[in-house]
Structure prediction request, 415 residues.
Amino acid sequence: MRRALTVAVVALVLLSGCSGVTDGGGTASPDGDASDTATPATTDAELPPTATPVTTTSIEPVETPTTDYSDPENVAITVENGQVPYDQNRTWVRVLDMLDVNTETPTEVEYIRGRGGVAGSATGIGSVYLDSKDESVLAHEFTHVALLRLTPEHPTSSADETFARDAIVEGSAEYVQRVYAARYLDREGALDGGELPNDPARAYVIAPYVLGYDYVDGQVNDASEVLGLHRYPPDTSEAIIHGLEPGSEPPAPLFVTAADRHLSTDAEWRYDGTRALGEIVLLLTLRTRLGDERAAEGAAGWGNDGVLTMVDGDDGEQAFVWVQRWDDRENASQFVTVGGEYVASDPPYAPPGDGGNLGNLPQPEFLETVWGPTDETFEVQRVGPLTTALVVGPEGFAGDVSYERDGQRVRVSVG
Prediction:
């Protein structure tokens, strides 16, 4: 007997849909001075203790249902807790036809209102949450259901890779939604792109929709090509921002850790991990104090990064060393210049996220510091020909920071 699947339609996060991917820890370290070309990834044994190697999985074939769920006679989706002013069965059939896929049909839509914010959310097991009667929004959520069922889980090893994956998930659904609105609802401007808000926290949450749509729109000629992109996504926000082919420019080798003396629990400054955040976070950070164009110039040529956190052994205060690896010396020099302008500019007057909790964002303590008003001091440092750092901490901290570069690693010392 076929398992019944339910689609609940309620409002959750923003714009048109939301489907999260769990974030794994990530790390990073330095440049090879003799070459600007990325070297092969290190083996597990070569990684520092806190590094998380990228996990790759083969794509297994998905079993094709024996029933044709793009045939209207095989579709019977009911609406619970309300009504929608269109034929939800027709919407499902149209989405499958656009995607050129066949997957099991949800049997029920539960319409629930009042959880405001954004239009909806969906999962690959057939659950959709939506607070809108807009037919194109349901097309967005049905796209999530179909694509997530047909796509094996992609483990991610950093916040940046998670962002890239989310951008494909949401960008794909945005693309189908917009094409659907233009094709079936005759909406002018449906295919136009969007813009990111000035607030960096809101921009980070919305970026998978806005930048994801732009990326998918630039990579495919038709909605039938979306599944392939969904199954083999890019792994960096750099690829999303610049429209790079998946796998065409992998992160440069960079592993950032602290000197051994900072690993002790009673160290004056205790090492508390390293996390790669990606070009998107660098861009949004520069954007908090500089214009969009200048921020983009400063982030251009990103190759990899790692935010190293240090904790003061006396009072528990945190300080950060954000190491960046660049594609070439020119990009590194450009960041030193633009980063200097960023440091010299006034910090924002308002906390990011309208003063809300940033706990759902990567490295929230760090982002709250660099994205909002703060008393911490900032300094841009040149670590090597291809490596720079933005040091953030109490007065005098930056002057105590030094670096040891060893192959693909940067080891940070304080004091």
